[in-house]
């Protein structure tokens, strides 16, 4: 795993790497050969929190001789600061970090080769969604889908023709419904890894464009 700032002060109001994070890292490791073949230019991590997932991905690519650029976007200012520190600690220099709500201010027409998102997936009352602090790490609203559902329809606009999108979900997020929405947007869905962690059935979903969509 990549090195992260370890004291409570350094992590501050930032999501500390947990079971979901570790499953995500394992899935990326599983995908090493696929990602090497993809030879990505731009990796975009939404909600990097500590930054460990994006930074780990960058170093995995670097070990394969692939000099990609990492864009990291988090709504929490402390998460962007922590991601910067994690990148520095792990010698990742090709990185742009922005505090932003999802992709609202970005024009990235089909330029992202690898999109990573461990979203706020916990089912909560809708009123808890929309924080810019630590609550943004987990509060997912109805079915834990309120942030996820804002992203799904725009993935097709930002992902390159051969691009891949990986996302963490739990069973309550209704993965079959997510796959149905992504299918309507021209994407195949597969499960890279699943694990029961305490009360959460976690999975890492992988989305790639259907062959007919890349022509
Ligand atoms: C579950 S944490 C994941 C953190 C880290 N990627 C990991 O796997 O440990 C979700 C992250 O998404 C961020 N986030 C939540 N809503 C967001 C939004 N609308 N736009 C950007 N980032 C958001 C949170 O601030 C938090 O850092």
Protein architecture, described:
There is one protein chain. The chain is an alpha/beta fold and 215 residues long. The protein has one domain (8-214): Vaccinia Virus protein VP39 (Rossmann fold), CATH 3.40.50. 31% of the residues lie in helices and 26% in strands. It is built from 8 helices and 7 strands. It has helices at residues 8-11, 19-30, 32-38, 52-63, 77-89, 148-151, 155-158, 175-184; strands spanning 42-46, 69-74, 95-99, 112-117, 159-170, 187-197, 200-209. The N and C termini lie far apart (37 Å). Bound molecules: S-adenosylmethionine.
Topology:
Blueprint: H1 8-11, H2 19-30, H3 32-38, E1 42-46, H4 52-63, E2 69-74, H5 77-89, E3 95-99, E4 112-117, H6 148-151, H7 155-158, E5 159-170, H8 175-184, E6 187-197, E7 200-209
Parallel strand pairs: 1-2, 1-4, 2-3, 4-5
Antiparallel strand pairs: 5-7, 6-7
Helix pairs in contact: 2-4
CATH superfamily membership, which one?
Vaccinia Virus protein VP39
> Please, how many domains?
1
The largest pleated sheet is described as: 7 strands, mixed
Radius of gyration: 16 Å
- Report the structural category: alpha/beta
Termini separation comes to 37 Å
| Order of SSEs | HHHEHEHEEHHEHEE
Order of strands, main sheet, comes to 3-2-1-4-5-7-6
Q: How many β-strand stretches?
A: 7
**Strand share of the residues?**
25-35%
Number of helices: 8
CATH class: Alpha Beta
Q: Which ligands appear in the coordinates?
A: S-adenosylmethionine
- What integer is the average pLDDT? 94
Principal-axes geometry comes out as: globular
């Amino acid at each position: 795993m990549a090195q992260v700032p370890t004291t409570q002060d350094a992590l501050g109001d930032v999501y500390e790497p947990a079971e979901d994070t570790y499953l995500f890292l394992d899935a990326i490791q599983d995908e090493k050969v696929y990602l090497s073949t993809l030879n990505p230019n731009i990796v975009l991590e939404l909600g990097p929190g500590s930054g460990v997932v994006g930074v780990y991905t960058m170093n995995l690519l670097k070990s394969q001789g692939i000099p990609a650029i990492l864009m990291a976007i988090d709504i929490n200012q402390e998460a962007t600061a922590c991601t910067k520190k994690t990148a520095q600690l792990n010698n990742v220099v090709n990185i742009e970090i922005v505090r932003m709500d999802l992709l609202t201010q970005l024009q990235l027409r089909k330029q992202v080769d690898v999109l990573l998102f461990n979203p706020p997936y916990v089912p909560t009352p809708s009123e808890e969604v929309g924080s810019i602090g630590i609550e943004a790490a987990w509060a997912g609203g109805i079915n834990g889908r309120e942030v996820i559902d804002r992203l799904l329809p725009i993935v097709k606009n930002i992902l390159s023709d051969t691009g891949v999108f990986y996302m963490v979900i739990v069973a309550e997020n209704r993965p079959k419904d997510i796959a149905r929405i992504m299918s309507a947007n021209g994407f195949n869905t597969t499960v890279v890894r699943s694990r029961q962690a305490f009360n959460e059935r976690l999975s890492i979903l992988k989305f790639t464009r259907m062959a007919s969509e890349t022509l």
